[in-house]
UniProtKB/TrEMBL annotation:
Species of origin: Gymnopus androsaceus JB14
Keywords: Disulfide bond, Glycoprotein, GPI-anchor, Hydrolase, Lipoprotein, Membrane, Signal, Transferase
Family stated for the protein in its record: Belongs to the glycosyl hydrolase 72 family.
Predominant localisation class: other
InterPro entries the record matches: GH, Glucanosyltransferase, X8
Residues spanning the membrane: none
Domain X8 as annotated: residue spans: 388-485
EC class (word): transferase
Cell compartment(s), UniProt: Cell envelope; Cell membrane; Membrane
Name used for this protein in its record: 1,3-beta-glucanosyltransferase
Function (record text): Splits internally a 1,3-beta-glucan molecule and transfers the newly generated reducing end (the donor) to the non-reducing end of another 1,3-beta-glucan molecule (the acceptor) forming a 1,3-beta linkage, resulting in the elongation of 1,3-beta-glucan chains in the cell wall.
PROSITE patterns, sorted: PROKAR_LIPOPROTEIN (PS51257)
UniProt-listed Enzyme Commission number(s): 2.4.1.-
Length: 532
């Protein structure tokens, strides 16, 4: 297998000596190579009781239904910075951000301290690719693009994650949608000249599940050695090392499995709590030459309190007035381990460009197609919506719970036009549209089948007849063909004009007042190799 790539970034700020690995996109600080020494930085939201994203022991967390954006809390970032510096971290991973808020203060504070951010683009509930009912549509794409737009002015964004623990054992078809998201987000980042990496954070599992998922996310379906659909940064949420373990007992297997992996890799979460106290002795192994040719450090979980079915992962407590930080023994032990880490300062292998192999075949453990969903096309979806004789028009603003049941009612026996299958690689011509447009489509189909009887457009008061819509089945089919002329097309997505206009004069715009410029200098392109 090909050796992992070395991708360098230039940094101007002198800092602690972090070290290079072959697998990650390296950042150099005065000829010292960057290595992710991170911590998860996300206050825990309220959770939906009885709802989990995965029932395996690898994911003990309930699904949150709210979140707090830590990068919009300037006072909080200033409060926390001394403690992050005590840990000597150079990266924070943030799981949910609000694109409508101002992040200048936090991003500038962290940049001045040489701290990067890995930002997850998904949001709780309806703002992510769903494991059991996946889609890659305009609503999720636009949300991702809006977040990237807001953060693109900052110089210390290391990566954007398109998903976290979405692909699960027995539910691997969703990988096709994650890969499509990586393709489109990567194309957009290239189009705006951003060097931020496209990442994915994977749940751990048996190697028969874990390895094909990783290989699929970094493969080339076209067999032309193209990285256009590949992630740049693979994260593994790994909690194998518990208590006073050892490299041989906990990490030797995963090290061997990823020895020839073709893109950057790191532990996107680590820090087992099932054998307390957390000694953090895995830090020495993770930052050692035993792992430095493959793994590029990791992100300790978690700075803020994080309660799970297994216990408490947090390392600090914040006072009720939000002004005071109290550290725990977990924090002190991690601080001790992070502070004594002395990894290599130069790569053990020469720099090389990544190669992108063919995609793994399907088997009993992995069932994702190399045929990916198309790029969501907002213009085509809106064009088609304007032709519907029956529209979804709910009388309430909180209508997310209505869409699924109403689609099931309107579809009847088949929803092929709005659905997709990540295993067969077949996607309906409206599979990339917003769920509300998909619902309007199915309601209109039902309306047409019932002779355009106004009562057949009611759907319990949630539908409205559009007198300007296409009249008759033939006209509706012609409109569909005209609006969605290339249903399988892929292209470089663009920021929705409504968001670009709305943000042009705000503190979150690209012309905002305090773009971070002091610490972490701009990264260079992800595919550029720079040797010293």
């Amino acid at each position: 297998m090909a050796k992992p790539p070395t991708i360098y970034f230039i940094l101007l700020l002198a800092a602690s000596c972090f070290f290079s690995v072959e697998a990650i996109s390296n950042v150099t600080r005065r000829r010292k190579s960057f290595y992710i020494k991170g911590i998860a930085y996300q206050p825990q939201g309220t959770q939906i009781l009885g709802t989990v994203t995965d029932t395996s022991s690898d994911n003990p967390f309930l699904e949150p239904d709210t979140f707090t954006d830590p990068l919009a809390d300037g006072a909080g970032c200033t409060r926390d910075l001394p403690f992050l510096q005590e840990l000597t971290v150079n990266t924070v991973r943030v799981y949910s951000v609000n694109a409508s808020l101002d992040h200048d203060s936090c991003m500038s504070t962290f940049s001045s301290a040489g701290i990067y951010a890995i930002i997850d683009l998904a949001l709780p509930l309806n703002g992510s690719i769903d494991t059991s009912s996946p889609s890659w549509g305009t609503n999720i794409l636009d949300q991702y693009l809006e977040t990237i737009h807001v953060f693109s002015k900052y110089d210390n964004v290391l990566a954007f994650n398109v998903g976290n623990e979405v692909i699960l054992t027995g539910q691997t078809a969703v990988a096709a949608y994650i890969k499509a998201a990586a393709r489109d987000i990567k194309a957009y980042l290239n189009s705006i000249g951003s060097s931020a990496l496209v990442g994915y954070a994977s749940i751990d599992g048996d190697s028969t599940f874990r390895d094909p998922v990783a290989n699929y996310l970094s493969c080339d379906p076209s067999n032309t050695n193209s990285g256009s659909t590949s992630i740049d940064l693979y994260g593994l949420n790994n909690y194998e090392w518990c208590g006073a373990s050892s490299f041989e007992a906990s990490y030797a297997g995963v090290e061997a499995d990823f020895a020839g992996y073709n893109v950057a890799a790191y532990f996107s979460e680590f820090g087992c709590i099932t054998s307390p106290p957390r000694l953090w002795t895995e830090v020495a192994a993770l930052f050692s030459s035993q792992m430095s040719d493959v793994w590029s450090g990791g992100v300790a979980f978690s700075y803020f309190p994080a309660t799970s079915s297994q216990g408490q992962f947090g390392m600090v407590n914040i006072s009720s007035d939000g002004t005071t930080v109290t550290t725990s023994a977990d924090f002190t032990r991690l601080q001790a381990q992070y502070n004594v880490t002395s990894p290599p300062t130069t790569p053990s292998k020469g720099s090389s460009s990544p190669t992108y192999p063919s995609c793994p075949g399907q088997n009993s453990s992995f069932a994702a197609s190399s045929s990916l969903p198309p790029t969501p096309n907002l213009a085509a979806c809106q064009c088609l919506e304007s032709t519907f004789g029956c529209h979804f028009n709910p009388p309430i603003s909180n209508y997310s719970g209505l869409i699924g049941p109403l689609i099931n009612t309107a579809c009847g026996g088949s929803c092929n036009d709005i659905g997709g299958n990540g295993t067969t690689g077949v996607y309906g011509r409206l599979s990339g549209c917003d769920p509300t447009i998909q619902l309007s489509f199915t309601m209109n189909e039902y309306y047409e089948l019932n002779g355009m009887n106004p009562e057949s457009c009611s759907f319990g008061g949630n539908g409205t007849v559009n007198p300007l819509g296409a009249s008759g089945t033939a006209a509706a089919m012609a409109a569909e063909t005209s609006c969605v002329s290339s249903p399988s097309a892929t292209f470089v997505p663009t920021l929705p004009s409504t968001f670009a206009t709305a943000s042009s004069g705000s503190g979150s715009s690209s012309s905002g007042s305090t773009s971070a410029k002091n610490g972490a200098a701009p990264l260079i392109a992800r595919d550029h190799l720079l040797d010293y």
